[in-house]
Amino acid sequence: MEVKEIPLVEIHGTAFNIRVDSEGISQELLDSIREHGVKQPILLRQKDSFYEIVAGARRFAACQKLGLSTIPSVIEAVDDKTAFEVALTENLQRKTLSPFDEAQAFLAYLNNYQWGTITELARKISKSPSYIVNRLKLVELPEKVRQHIFSGERFSVSHADEVLRLAGEPEKMEELARVIVENGLDRDKTREVVELVKDHDISINRAVETVKATSELRERAQLVSDQARRSLIEAEPHKAKRIVEIADEGLRGVAKRLELFPERSQKMEPKFEQLAMWEERGVIPYTIWDFAYRDGYAGDKDFHGNCSPQIVEQCIWRFTEEEELVVDPMAGSGTALDVCRRFNRRCIAYDINPARSDIEEIDSRKMPLDSDTVDMIFIHPPYWNLVSYTTNNDGKPGDLSRAPSLQAYLQMLGEVFTECRRVLRPGKHLCVLIGDLVRDGQFIPLCRGVSNLAEELNFIDCGYAIKLAHGEVSRKKSGVIVAELAYTNNLKISHDLVLFLKKGES
Prior knowledge:
By secondary structure, the chain is of the alpha/beta class. It folds into four domains: 4-97, Conserved hypothetical protein from pyrococcus furiosus pfu- 392566-001, ParB domain (Alpha-Beta Complex); 141-247, no CATH class; 249-275, no CATH class; 288-503, Vaccinia Virus protein VP39 (Rossmann fold). The protein contains 20 helices and 15 strands. Strands 6-14-15-11-10-7-8-9 form an eight-stranded mixed beta sheet, sandwiched between helices. It has a five-stranded mixed beta sheet with strand order 1-5-3-4-2. Helix 5 packs across helix 6, helix 15 crosses helix 16 (335-342) and helix 17 (406-423) packs across helix 18 (446-456). The model is unreliable at 250-266 and 472-477 (pLDDT under 50).
């Protein structure tokens, strides 16, 4: 590695201006260079008649501020992608970026330049995929909320996660960010405020007052408990040991069980490893999936019957690895296709009436795939005759939404499931997003019908998740009115099911 002294006047800016703030140069860096010089050369690349900084923008800015004429440099031929990765990694290591700066840089890498997937970027910068996903969520915050993030003192990324639960209500999001800063709320108190606002429809200010009062009561109760404990020990010091033992009984019980049954502890290790992997990926380990908002990066939110990207994410994170093949036999607006691309899964998407050029026009009762070749199938079939996806003039007999009866619908869906079972590898999963209906005052148990159908086709039932519905969008599109449901003695259906079905090994 050859180090050269390059005149500062021959160096024109950075390859990628992720963040170069000459006003933010620390006095420590200036003093170090003044006394010892630049210890670590900066990295440059040749650009026509000048040089461009790849790594070392802060050292360069410090030398400018000190009035130096040259700077020790290493010159390498670096392409744009590598230059961006090097600059981003350096800023992350030196912690010179705000969380929102990071989000903007990640977004540029993934979307603007389309240099790779989240997984690939995570590997390049030595971060976890979930770290990048959580940063990208910050882009969805209103501008006024982002300004609080820049300060980084009383408003953190964890606060932003809670504010995002009010997505779709920018005024409330801005008000919540303001009260977080003004009241110094930590994440737990912020979460309590959001839950009060969402569950009880009260104002943010009233929710904050309630949470603060509750917190004071908790502290007082803890103080009373501590005082009682001290009083007991003072009154009966000979029982002090027993009093402490009772207080710590839960922890001692766990420790004793591990001592008595070490083999159980050993058997739990793989389970803990699995849970750790799920946590790293962001997998929800519960049957209730409650997404307060729909991520907008995949599919078309205005497409009739669109699927939330988070549902597909949960399925592929749980049942697939990178580069494995996912098939969506009823692709709609292409949500599964976009999610798989982002998370480095191969995906083939079919539909009888494609909405995009990258979706193949195929009747999914006969897919052009070899048997035992697919690692997971995600399917979101029409909810029978709720919304029609073709017309009588299209001449496409594979449209389940136009089935003349529920029996005909289930028969057609059975043909699709049979084909899904053929192409799936043994031990791999079919994930089905489906919901029940109320039509003409009658409850139609689609979920039960689909579950029974899968059992008849020898799929192994691996349970389900309940995906809660939010907002009024689907209700307005479908025309369902709660008052009419109550009149016919039915309940408004506010959830869908995600069925997990596995193809047996034999």
